[in-house]
Amino acid sequence: MTTTVDYADVPGLAGTDLGWTEWLEVTQDRVNLFADATDDHQWIHVDPERAAEGPFGAPIAHGFLTLSLTVKFWSELFDVTGVGTRVNYGLDKVRFVSPVKVGARVRMNAVIAEVTEVRGGYQFAVDQTIEIEGADKPAVVARGLYRFYA
């Protein structure tokens, strides 16, 4: 469910837990498209037969593919009305904790850790956790930085 707030209410959002996104299956097609986009065709990602014999027992998503899903998931969880421009400003302390096997489902939780006023807008520091369905450890833990300008 998307939390939608007005731009005027942004300063008071620090500490807000936005909850969880819907589950998303990581398919081999998605992994292959990411490999093509980044020229990273390592066999553990794109060769299901060889990867089945490899260290993870199946092909796995690129860590940066899983991380890139934060963009999709963030927009599922949060929106601000009265905004002219939204930008991804960066990331702090990214960790790829567990590999995501092709066919697994992932989702993200986001907590707004900080809201800081910046020239012309606000910056959000968001603690993001991408979990793998049925796994003990998350796939990715990161702090995303987003800016919203009026």
Automatic annotation (TrEMBL):
It comes from the Bacteria. Gene3D superfamilies: Hotdog Thioesterase (3.10.129.10). Pfam families: MaoC_dehydratas (PF01575). InterPro entries: HotDog_dom_sf, MaoC-like_dom, NodN-like. Residues 15-124 form the MaoC-like domain. Belongs to the enoyl-CoA hydratase/isomerase family. This is MaoC family dehydratase.
